[in-house]
Amino acid sequence: MFWTIIFLLGGIAFVIIFSSRSRQKNEPPLDKGFIPWLGHALEFGNDVAKFLSRMKQKHGDIFTVRVCGHYITVLLDPNSYDEVLNDTVSLDLNNYTRVLMQRMFSLCLPNHSPDAERAWMKQHFQGPSLAKLSSTMHSHLHTLLRDEERSCSPVEWKEDGLFSFCYSMLFRAGYLTLFGTEKSHSLTDLTAVYREFRRFDGLLTKLAHSTLKNEEKKIASQSQKQLWEMLSPPWLSDRGGSTSNSWQQSYRSRLQNEGVDLEMQKRAMVLQLWVTQGNAGPAAFWLLGFLLTHPEAMRAVKEEIKGLTQLEGGLLQHHLLDTVDQHSTPVFDSVLTETLRLTAAAFITREVVQDKILPLASGQQYRIRKGDRVCLFPFVSPQMDPEIHDEPEQFRYDRFLNADGTEKKSFYKGGVRLKYYNMPWGAGRKACVGRHFAVSGIKQFVFIVLSRLELELCDPTATLPPVNPSRYGFGMLQPSGDLGVRYRLKTVR
């Protein structure tokens, strides 16, 4: 018993001594929290947006916090973000990315090159390939919604949760566009992939934080294995290769050229499934949710649809929907930008690989230590910063419109015009390559829904559910519940 106590006290002393740190000259304000080693881990994990907003009020636009033994310098001055985004010498993205890939997807790609992957992604998500993907996406959306329409009528209403409706439709259409095989065109198989993905997605944030309970670990492991098999096309074992020009086949070939074995190829496909399909559905939910709970915004978007296209019996012409992203839609664009401002909440994280002097736009300079991490959280600033956006917690569909109906791009903080006033896709050279494909899919989906269906709230007084705070830092936020809606076919007059 005596030696047990001695060892416990020694362990506690070890943690206190080696987790101690004091602020040095020219370093950002240091807030270690009261719990040795853990620091602010609990607050950080429970609601990081609320926590960082509180730290910002306490310390200003830059500060260092301790979280599970790591020291994270958080920068919340958009005018200084380029000093982090453009530094590839003192700051590194790759190491932390590898850590998350292993935690979340049990994936190890030792020869992984983010720059090479971005170049490959640009070949598929930009230029002529983007137009082809968008057209294919629209075709699948059209087919899936046509199947949905068969269960509807102009007389009887059908009820559903808006989040479930949006996520299911966009996930399945996106899956068929990028991962589809002849087998996956079965509606039953497609639904099975979607349900398994949602089960896995529900545990991803805990996987990233290493906070899964034992039972959850079993569920996550089972779900991963199911998805690995579901995303393995028949030609995967064909070492001779396939003549297919599909995105999926191209990605498999790229992994093979990097020396990735078949097992890791399966796991990499689950990563790509989450990256490509995990955000569009939630974004469409929030957008339609804001429109349904803000009638003025809904009227403005519907007026734009009418003015944009010719209507035949109240239905948007098919060939115009196929090219809708090529037309000017300033009202819809403002609604989407405002939606993303309120609900896109990804971290931008770098590891400090050598001591760095970080100059701010204010003229101040701060020393950042090797071994620490630097984090930008655009959701807090610029997106929810009251110095930049008036009443930032409120949805205003015309926030990004000038009085003459053109796109508003001039926003200021401290009298200085901002380069970054909204950052749902990241910024700089690391901005999301697939953003144009995502926007095109969301736009097509919303236009099809609003042109073909009468959509309304089950309860006219209902409000949007609150966000699930565990999703902060992982792309698009998700709701903690759903929003009941009902819909029916529009009557053709």
Automatic annotation (TrEMBL):
The record lists substrate as bound by: R103, L109, N279, R373
Location in the cell reads:
Endoplasmic reticulum membrane
Q: Which GO terms describe its biological process?
A: prostaglandin biosynthetic process
Needed cofactors, names only, are: heme
What PANTHER family would the database entry show?
A: PROSTACYCLIN SYNTHASE, PTHR24306
- Per the UniProt record, one Pfam family is p450
This chain belongs to which protein, by name?
A: Prostacyclin synthase
Signal sequence extent: none
Tell me the function of this protein.
Catalyzes the biosynthesis and metabolism of eicosanoids. Catalyzes the isomerization of prostaglandin H2 to prostacyclin (= prostaglandin I2), a potent mediator of vasodilation and inhibitor of platelet aggregation. Additionally, displays dehydratase activity, toward hydroperoxyeicosatetraenoates (HPETEs), especially toward (15S)-hydroperoxy-(5Z,8Z,11Z,13E)-eicosatetraenoate (15(S)-HPETE).
- List the record's Gene Ontology CC terms alphabetically: endoplasmic reticulum membrane
**What catalytic reaction does the record list?**
a hydroperoxyeicosatetraenoate = an oxoeicosatetraenoate + H2O; prostaglandin H2 = prostaglandin I2
The UniProt annotation places heme binding at C432
The catalytic activity of this protein is classed by the Enzyme Commission as 4.2.1.152, 5.3.99.4
Its predominant location is endoplasmic reticulum
Describe its membrane topology.
Answer: Single-pass membrane protein
Record GO terms (molecular function)? heme binding; hydroperoxy icosatetraenoate dehydratase activity; iron ion binding; monooxygenase activity; oxidoreductase activity, acting on paired donors, with incorporation or reduction of molecular oxygen; prostaglandin-I synthase activity
Protein family membership: Belongs to the cytochrome P450 family.
Q: Which InterPro entries match?
A: Cyt_P450, Cyt_P450_CS, Cyt_P450_CYP7A1-type, Cyt_P450_E_grp-IV, Cyt_P450_sf
What keywords does the record list, in alphabetical order?
A: Endoplasmic reticulum, Fatty acid biosynthesis, Fatty acid metabolism, Heme, Iron, Isomerase, Lipid biosynthesis, Lipid metabolism, Lyase, Membrane, Metal-binding, Monooxygenase, Oxidoreductase, Prostaglandin biosynthesis, Prostaglandin metabolism, Transmembrane, Transmembrane helix
